[in-house]
Design brief:
Layout: H1 2-34, H2 41-48, H3 52-58, H4 62-85, H5 91-108, H6 110-117, H7 140-153, H8 161-184, H9 194-208
Helix pairs in contact: 1-2, 1-4, 2-3, 4-5, 5-6, 5-7, 5-8, 5-9, 7-8, 8-9
């Protein structure tokens, strides 16, 4: 009897997970077609073929729907950044490799990138999403901040927290500017002046924030 009950529970969990993945796919499709504003519990339920009760049972609100739709893409991005960093022999080289990998990821996954960083959207409660804010293995910004922390630890840049965040944000903004422009202006060459941009940004940060 206990084994039978366990099998029923496992089946229900599998069914719930399948529903969750289907709903997330629907959410991403709606966002691709009409932006985050096109998402509502009612529209998602209709497009997924479920009642609103089913959707609410799996996701507490619209923000959670969108947040969980972003989870896998954020994890994929940070995995790409970390893998690129592994090939570097020094902190500055690792930062340049991470910057190149970030841009290449954004241009290879334009829809996903636009959802992550180019959509005005509600933000889900931290407990409602998989990605842990501040975890360098899950949060792309936290990982970039960690790399600048390595520079500070080796005495190459200032070590105060405000300076580290400023360096990280300047680096991120430069990369995002390049990716977002190429997403909306498709005639631009994908690899033109990427090396120059990385060199200017990293050298500028080194000079501006030297200890």
């Amino acid at each position: 009897m206990d084994k039978k009950l366990s099998n029923i529970q496992e089946r229900k969990l599998r069914e719930a997970q399948a529903r969750r993945e289907h709903i997330i796919a629907v959410v991403k499709d709606l966002i691709k077609k009409g932006g985050a504003r096109a998402v509502s519990i009612r529209k998602v339920a209709e497009a997924a073929g479920f009642s609103t009760t089913v959707v609410y049972a799996l996701f507490r609100d619209k923000a959670t729907l969108i947040g969980q739709a972003m989870d896998k893409d954020l994890l994929a991005l940070v995995h790409t950044m970390r893998s690129a960093s592994d090939a570097g022999t020094g902190a500055w080289e690792r930062i340049a490799l991470v910057g190149r990998a970030y841009v290449q990821y954004g241009l290879r996954h334009r829809d996903e990138y636009a959802l992550l960083f180019m959509e005005l959207r509600p933000h889900a409660a931290i407990a409602a999403v998989e990605v842990e804010h501040g975890n360098i293995e899950q949060d792309p910004y936290a990982y970039a901040l960690h790399l600048f922390g390595e520079l500070a630890h080796s005495g190459q840049v200032r070590a105060d927290e405000a300076a580290l965040h400023t360096m990280t944000q300047i680096f991120w903004q430069a990369l995002h500017g390049l990716v977002s422009l190429r997403i909306v202006m498709e005639h631009m060459q994908p690899d033109s002046h990427l090396d120059d941009l990385l060199a200017v940004v990293t050298e500028g940060i080194r000079l501006r924030f030297q200890p």
